[in-house]
Design a protein that fits this description.
Oligomer: single chain
Radius of gyration: 17 Å
Helix content: 40-55%
Order of helices and strands: EHEHEEHHHHHH
Strand content: 5-15%
Shape: globular
Distance between the termini: 26 Å
Length: about 200
């Protein structure tokens, strides 16, 4: 079996697990306990990834892969899937959407870490606000594109965006992003109901 350092709260781990589920590879992943943290380094993860970040995967023959973008592409190749378009504008559109979803997750994580990882005397509200401004801009971009989205997790760009929206629901419910993005909300209601999304919902 492949081994994966796993965290049920990580949107990036969720990306990997959605891909694995869609590709029929989820049962081939041994999920290893981890405690990734921006300050307290988990040396167990470092055995697979020197950056000590999840997700980190090791194949049966000892090949170590990280981060989610690399692992998802590896799983797609292994499962002979079609989550990564191979040619033309479809490929670049998919990869750009993956970057958009990942960027929203990155910004949301930085905003969360500002208050969950820093001591109170070092917290900077303007920094967190700037990160959430990136999240808002990303949501606006999604709202403009969502009319062309599939309702199924059949493309890495849409999987990344779906995991980003799920992370906002999980950690930033107070943003109430659906209120100002009705088209995205309608799309996500269907997309999030897919079995691969349901099976990977974040939880504490």
């Amino acid at each position: 079996m492949m081994s994966l350092f796993y965290a049920s709260t990580s949107a990036y781990v969720r990306k990997v697990m959605v891909c694995a589920t869609v590709l029929g590879l989820a049962d081939e992943l041994e999920r290893l306990e981890s405690a990734a943290h921006p300050i307290a380094r988990d040396e167990r993860i470092a055995a697979f990834n020197p950056l000590a970040k999840v997700p980190a995967l090791r194949s049966e023959n000892g090949l170590c892969l990280y981060d989610s973008r690399v692992i998802c592409e590896y799983l797609n190749a292994r499962g002979q899937g079609n989550l990564f378009p191979q040619n033309g504008d479809a490929r670049w559109r998919s990869l750009a959407r993956q970057a958009l979803g990942d960027g929203i997750i990155d910004a949301a994580l930085l905003a969360r870490y500002e208050f969950s990882a820093r001591p109170p005397e070092k917290q900077w509200q303007d920094w967190a606000d700037a990160q959430l401004k990136k999240v808002a801009a990303g949501l606006t971009e999604i709202e403009g594109q969502v009319g062309g989205f599939s309702e199924f997790p059949d493309d890495i760009g849409l999987i990344a965006i779906g995991c980003a929206l799920g992370y906002l629901d999980f950690r930033f419910a107070e943003l109430n992003w659906r209120a100002s993005h009705p088209l995205t909300a309608a799309w996500f209601a269907v997309f999030a109901a897919h079995p691969a999304m349901v099976a990977t919902r974040p939880h504490l």
